[in-house]
Design goal:
The chain is an all-alpha fold. It is 68% helix and 0% strand. The protein is built from twelve helices and no strands.
């Protein structure tokens, strides 16, 4: 009689059973769910720019996506696992691009692979009369499906147009707060780039983009309270400066009006005194005394020229010559 074989289940002997494995499966499922939510957040945009142009919807796009909601959900930490993984991946990529010779390794892997393939093919033909690399050749080479390629190119096109449109919205001050924030960021980057390398500036930018919203959402009440106080102080100072400027403007206006009135009265006084000091000629006074306001002025015969008393001489066209040849002209010459 063979003894009955019994299997004893030792706790912890199976790695797929236990609280650790359950926790890993739960976290994996939650992470996958957050990534799906993040991907589904790219819904068609409902808003438009100030010019009436759609933000990311292109006329020839079949499945438009709104990258505004995508980046908002990514940076607002609504899906903390997906945001954490994307942040760590970006930081690791920056450090890898800085410290790892990725391009050199790529060429190294490429020449080793091609060298092994060529050696196997040539060695197989010399020894076995058949190439080894060609024996593994597929019957049909792999090609990228057209649907996948068009979808990828469409996503790239929408992403590029998203950044182009957003840059123009910031440049033309569609939202002044965003323009001011971009100005401050550009100014800080201008001074940091003098002594900070590109990878360091990229790391600082990524850290501020990811950790800034996290700090704000964690301490939202405190930050909003201080922002409200700062806004009230700024508004009070602006109102005080406005009132002070209005007061000084009114005082300056009244002073200018007073100076203008003084100079006008002085000019009128000078003009009146100059008229009073102007002398009058005796003849003008006599004529004014003889002729009243309604009487005609008195003239004598000496006030008028002599009239000619002989016919004009032929061949003479000038008035001066006619006068000299006349009797009055000859008398004048004889007298002189």
């Amino acid at each position: 009689m063979t003894p009955e074989m019994t299997t004893l289940q030792i706790p912890g002997s199976n790695p797929t059973i236990g609280p650790v494995a359950d926790n890993v499966r739960n976290q994996t499922a939650k992470t996958s769910s957050e990534f799906r939510n993040l991907a589904d957040s790219r819904a068609p945009p409902n808003s438009s720019a100030a010019s009436g142009q759609p933000l990311t919807r292109m006329p020839h796009t079949l499945f438009p996506k709104d990258y505004h909601s995508f980046f908002y959900n990514l940076l607002s930490w609504e899906n903390p696992r997906a945001t954490s993984i994307s942040f760590l991946s970006t930081v690791l990529f920056i450090f890898a691009a800085r410290y790892l010779p990725a391009l050199r390794w790529t060429f190294k892997v490429l020449y080793i692979t091609l060298g092994c393939t060529a050696a196997a093919e040539l060695g197989g033909k010399m020894v076995l009369s058949q190439g080894l690399a060609s024996s593994f050749r597929p019957k049909k080479y792999y090609t990228i499906p057209r649907e996948a390629l068009e979808a990828s190119l469409e996503d790239v096109e929408q992403l590029i147009n998203f950044f182009v449109i957003e840059f123009q919205r910031v440049l033309f001050a569609e939202k002044p707060a965003h323009t001011v924030a971009a100005f401050v960021a550009s100014l800080i980057s201008y001074w940091l780039i003098k002594f900070t390398p590109i990878w360091g500036l990229s790391l600082i930018t990524v850290s501020m983009l990811y950790l800034g919203p996290l700090v704000y959402t964690t301490n939202k009440e405190l930050i909003d309270h201080h922002l409200e106080n700062a806004t009230n102080v700024v508004n009070a100072q602006a109102t005080q400066v406005k009132d002070l400027a209005g007061h000084h403007t009114s005082r300056a206006t009244s002073a200018v009006k007073g100076y203008a009135g003084d100079y006008t009265s002085k000019a009128q006084n000078y003009i009146g005194s100059a008229r009073a000091k102007t002398p009058t000629s005796p003849s003008a006074a006599n004529s004014g005394a003889k002729s009243g306001p309604g009487s005609a002025p008195a003239y004598t015969s000496s006030d008028f020229p002599h009239a000619p008393k002989q016919e004009p001489m032929p061949g003479v066209t000038s008035h001066q010559q006619q006068y000299e040849n006349s009797r009055f002209g000859g008398q004048a010459e004889a007298t002189s």
